[in-house]
Design goal:
Structural class: alpha/beta
Helix content: 40-55%
Distance between the termini: 28 Å
Shape: globular
Strand order of the largest sheet: 1-3-2-4-11-5-12
Length: 359
C-alpha cells in the first residue's frame, strides 16, 4: 500500500476539513474472474458432444470482469479518513490494489481530482458538486461518509438550547464553507439572525483560545477537535450537537460533512472495482463503529489523529456509508439548503441527476 501523507502546519484545522466484504474483496474479484474463466472452459469441454453454437452461446454469456492494476484513493485527515482505516489495513496486509493519499486540507485534493490523478476521494459534501461543475460532469457522488461533526461548545453552563444563544458571541472557523452555511441556517431558522454575533477566526485553535479566554462564551468546533480540546481543558462543554439542531429545523434533509466521489470515467470503465470498493468501505465503517479500541489504534497508526483522541471522538464523529437512493435523498436535500443560502456554495447550480451514482 502506498500511503502519501501530506501534513500542513494547520493540522488541527484540517482534521475536520471535512466526512462512510472486509477481508477479501479485491482478491475476491480477481478470484471470481479466474473462477468464471475456469467454469466456462469446463462447460465448453463437457458440452463437446453438444452443438457448436450451444458451446459458443455458453462462452459468450460469461461477463468480463474488469479491474485496474491500481485504484487511487484520497481522503482528508479527520472523520473522512477515519472511516477507511480498516480498508487501509487490509490493503497493507493483503496487497490489494489500493493506493491511499491522506491530505491535510481540501485544497490539496481538488486539483488531484480535477486532473484525474485520483480515482476515488472523500471530500466535503459541497466540494463534490463544485468539482462536478468545474469538470463538466466528470465527477459522481458514491456515498455519504460523514454526517454532521459540528458542535457548539461552551466555557460555562448557560446554553441548553438554540434559544439560549440570544445575545451570545459565537467564535467559529470555516467562513465561506460548510460551517458558515450550517450555522447561519440554524440561527436563521430559529429567528436569531439579529441576536447572535458570529466572530470568524482562521483556525479552530483560535476559536478554542477565545472560548477559554471569555467566560460563558460559545465556539463552534468540529470533531475530533472537540475531543482534543476537552482532553486539554475540562471546562469545555458540548452544549449543542448541530445534527440535532438541524433536524429540529428541517425534516427534509440531514446535516452532512463528507461524501465519497468517483471519476465518472473510472466508474464506467470499472464498475466491478467501484462495487468492490463500496463493499470494503462499508465493512470498514462498520468495523470502526463497532470496534473502537482496535479502530483507534489504526487511526493513530496511519497518522490521521492520535489514537487516544480517536478513541474518545469516534462515537461522536457520525461516520457512515450511505449509498444508492438514500444517499441521493440526503445529499440532494442538504445541497438544496446550501444552494438557497448561496448558490456558489454548490458550484452555482444544483447538480443534475447524473451526479448521483445509484447503481
Amino acid at each position: 500500500m502506498n500511503i502519501k501523507k501530506r501534513i500542513s502546519a494547520a493540522l488541527m484545522a484540517a482534521m475536520c476539513a471535512l466526512t462512510f466484504s472486509a477481508c477479501s474483496g479485491g482478491s475476491t474479484s480477481s478470484s471470481s474472474s479466474s473462477t468464471s474463466s475456469s467454469t466456462t472452459e469446463s462447460s465448453s469441454s463437457s458440452s463437446s458432444s453438444s452443438t457448436e453454437s450451444s458451446s459458443s452461446s455458453t462462452s459468450s454469456s460469461t461477463p468480463e470482469v474488469k479491474l485496474p492494476e491500481a485504484i487511487k484513493v484520497a481522503a482528508l485527515k479527520g472523520p473522512t479518513a477515519m472511516g477507511m482505516v480498516e480498508l487501509m489495513d487490509e490493503d497493507e496486509k493483503n496487497n490489494l490494489p489500493y493506493e491511499f493519499t491522506i491530505a491535510a486540507a481540501a485544497d490539496e485534493l481538488s486539483p488531484l481530482i480535477a486532473q484525474g490523478k485520483v480515482d476515488i476521494a472523500c471530500v466535503p459534501a459541497n466540494l463534490g458538486t463544485v468539482l462536478y461543475k468545474k469538470t463538466e460532469g466528470k465527477i459522481q457522488a458514491l456515498a455519504v461518509n460523514t454526517l454532521g461533526v459540528l458542535y457548539l461548545c461552551e466555557n460555562g453552563d448557560t446554553v441548553k438550547s438554540i434559544a439560549d444563544l440570544k445575545g451570545k458571541t459565537i467564535y467559529s472557523a470555516g467562513k465561506g464553507a460548510t460551517p458558515e452555511y450550517a450555522l447561519n441556517f440554524i440561527i436563521k431558522s430559529n429567528g436569531l439572525e439579529n441576536d447572535v454575533n458570529i466572530e470568524w477566526k482562521s483556525e479552530h485553535a483560535e476559536c478554542l483560545a477565545a472560548l477559554l479566554a471569555n467566560e460563558n462564551s460559545v465556539a463552534m468546533l468540529p470533531q475530533p477537535f472537540v475531543t482534543t480540546a476537552q482532553m486539554k481543558n475540562e471546562g469545555v462543554r458540548v452544549a449543542i450537537d448541530l445534527n440535532d439542531a438541524w433536524n429540529e429545523s428541517v425534516q427534509t434533509s440531514s446535516l452532512l460533512t463528507g461524501i465519497v466521489v468517483v471519476r465518472k470515467e473510472f466508474a464506467e470503465k470499472y464498475p466491478d472495482a467501484v462495487k468492490d470498493f463500496l463493499d470494503r468501505y462499508s465493512a470498514s465503517v462498520k468495523f470502526i463503529n463497532e470496534n473502537i479500541d482496535e479502530a483507534s489504534e489504526l487511526v493513530g497508526k496511519y497518522d490521521i489523529v492520535p489514537a487516544a483522541v480517536a478513541k474518545k471522538a469516534i462515537p461522536n464523529c457520525h461516520i457512515v456509508c450511505i449509498t444508492g437512493d438514500e444517499m441521493k435523498s440526503k445529499l440532494s436535500g442538504y445541497l438544496q439548503v446550501l444552494f438557497e443560502q448561496n448558490p456558489a456554495s454548490v458550484g452555482g447550480a444544483m447538480p443534475a441527476e447524473d451526479f448521483y451514482y445509484t447503481k
